[in-house]
Design brief:
Helix content: 10-25%
Number of strands: 11
Distance between the termini: 130 Å
Number of domains: 2
Radius of gyration: 36 Å
Number of helices: 7
CATH topology of the largest domain: Coagulation Factor XIII, Chain A, domain 1
Family: Belongs to the polysaccharide monooxygenase AA14 family.
Order of helices and strands: HEHEEEEEEEEEEHHHHH
Shape: elongated
GO molecular function, one term: metal ion binding
Largest sheet: 6 strands, mixed
Structural class: alpha+beta
Main location: secreted
CATH class of the largest domain: Mainly Beta
Keywords: Copper, Disulfide bond, Glycoprotein, Metal-binding, Monooxygenase, Oxidoreductase, Secreted, Signal
Oligomer: single chain
Subcellular location: Secreted
Amino acid sequence: MVSLSISTLSALVLALVVKDTAAHIVLWHDAMFGWDQYNINQNDAVTPLADMTFDEWWFHGYKDKKPAEGKFIELPVGGVFKGEVACNKAQTTWNPEITDESQLDEFACHDVGPMHTTDAKGSENPTNVKGCGLAIAYTSDENTVKPSDFTVFSVDHACPWKRRVDFPVPADLPACPEGGCLCSWGWVHSPESGSEQMYHTVYRCKVTGATETRALPAPLTANKCDYPSDTANCTVGGKQPHYWLQKEGNNNFQDYYDPPYYNEKYGFMQGAQTDLFAGIAPSRPTVVAESSVVPTSTVATVVSSSEVPSAQPTLVVESSTTDVASSASTSASVVLSTSSTSSSSIANSSSGAAPTSVVSSSSSAQASTSASSSSAPATTTKSTGKTCKRTLHNNVVRQARRHTRAARVAATVESVRQRDVLLDRQRLLAEGLAIMARSKLV
């Protein structure tokens, strides 16, 4: 009678189990939707997905088969999530009968067939393996989450190959909401190695050690390109997983022999995806609220910036104690200055005080014209002059307010050239208003 030790018997049983159940591949974890805690030999989750309705392939059909309470994949920011991909749960450390990892195969499966590659088993540099990826959605509600909510955050170009696979986690991945996040694992294999399909499984997960407070921008479909040698067609920023070859719910519509991959051919860099926020435009200067100043004079003075690109140009109607006739008889001045040279003027503007004008009419000219205007005797002339003053005053005020707003909006424009063009137009407008004042009131 032949006697076998318990360890030898266990190894033989495991070999038989794996041989009988080897199929395809999945990332095994007890936070998986569809996890069967009572079935050591579970292999239904490895079933490939092709030509299915949305409800059939979404969550691999396990949306209502939730993981046990409190089960999560933990994702340490700046660290690594160490996962296991295999043809069968029994081939992983999730098998409670495994006491030493040396009992397990180094590779995802005993044979290369289920790994869908032409590479020879044992190769340290497989070339026909096309990569797999982990994605995250910032919700814990499996009933409302959508395929477009998932952002791929980590990729391994040599997956599935070895059973152990590392997924580096970006350092700027934000924390999950209360209740955690949902994560998905995806894989699409080479067309040279069996019938085409995709793999998609969902898990509960949570981010640990997060310091980033910005929410991830909405991910886009990953375009076919050639990162990093030719990125012209690459998707900028966060990218969705590949949903392909199904009856409905696809985001990629390439044909049967042109499958999408989780590698550089679709803009996915090896490891942590550090471009998740790359699609966000840089912050722009704050637009300062318009002052409530009511100008009392008819001479328009342009105060703008020609030295500091970020300065706020402001159009100010200069206050004066002289009357309109005396002001109109002097030359109107257009002055270029920097509004940021005096922080007090900005403070005064925001508090409602009148901004200080940079240029005023010369004292001698004011005195001379004031004397001449005081000798005008006719009542009719005075009445007409008042009407003209009031009309011109209203016109200038409207123009001043309109161009003050335009100047402030222009300050937010990143192009210095566009701002300079606007300032030139303001200068010409001011000169035109001054000429109009002289022609009507002299």
